[in-house]
Every structure is written in C-alpha cells, then in structure tokens.
Amino acid sequence: MSRIRPERPGDEAAIASVIERAFGRPDEARLVERLRADGDSVVSLVAEAEGELAGHVLLSRMSAPFRALGLGPVSVAPERQRSGVGAALIGDALALARSGGWDAAFVLGDPAYYGRFGFRADLAACFASPYAGPYLMLLPLAPPLPAAGGRIDYPPAFAGLE
User: Hey, which residues does 49 pair with through a beta bridge?
Assistant: First the structure.
C-alpha cells in the first residue's frame, strides 16, 4: 500500500526518476523541474511504497478567467502501475485543490481515465486553448464556475513539451 505525502526538499531526484521511468523519456521530468523553478507548482504530491517513491502528481497554476490549475504530469513507476497509485495521487491532489479554494482543474489526457474523476471535455470545449479538443477536460472544483468560457493557458513551461 502506498502512502501519499507532499513533495519535500530532497525528493527532486527520486521524482525525476519516477517520471522518466513512467514516460520512458526525460521531457516530463524537465517540465516538472521548470514548473517548480518558475513558481508555477501549486500541489506536488508523491506516493511512497516500501520506502521508495512510487508515483508523483503535479497541479500547476493556469491562466484562466477564474482560479484554475492544470493536472499533470501524473507519473507512476512502471512496476506500480495499475495498482491504484495514480488514482490515489489524483484524488488527494484534487482534494487539496478544493480545500485551497481553487475553482477548477483542467487536464489534457485520456477521457476514459480522467472521466472517472469527473473531468469533462464538453465543459472545456467553451474555453479557447492551443490544446482545445476532445482530450482537454475540465473539472469544476467549486461549482458553479465563475465563467463558462474564455481563454486558458498552461504555464510557459508547457510550451517546451512535445
């Protein structure tokens, strides 16, 4: 069983390792490092299992017509995938966002997976974004949303991710 806790100083290398192994490349790990360095990281949680980091989730500040966060990346060590670690990380991160007074979270990902958490593409369709489409989804954290449309942007660090 995993224990979820906030990222703390000294976790950076282990987080980068989990992210690189989960994605099979270093790009997302560099994204997390840049979001942290730019001050855009708002919620950063890790999952520990048997004394090692098993997963990581990040919520970063977005530009939107209300207080919004972007979910991602979500990373789980390959040997821990499909064991509930990712779902636990996402659930705890969204709970912290709600308790922190954030209005909504956006995610760019698989609708079948993120739909389980309440993310909906139809709600995000009213927002202008370079990532607009069926994979951009919105989860209201404190309904009703203060605005039903407008422009949204992920932090500048995302521009470097392919």
Answer: 52
> What total of structural domains would you count in the chain?
1
- Tokens read off for 36: 């942290």
Two structure tokens written together for 101: 């007074």
What is the token pair recorded at 80? 């821990």
Q: How confident is the model at residue 161 (pLDDT cuts 50, 70, 90)?
A: confident
Q: What's this model's pTM, rounded to 2 decimal places?
A: 0.95
CB count in 10 Å sphere of residue 62: 23
Give percent helix, percent strand, percent coil of the chain, each to the nearest 5.
35, 30, 35
CA distances from 41 to 50, 62, 80, 83 (A): 26, 10, 24, 26
CA distances to 63, 66, 76 from 20, in Å = 27, 32, 10
Q: What is the span of the domain harbouring residue 8?
A: 3-153
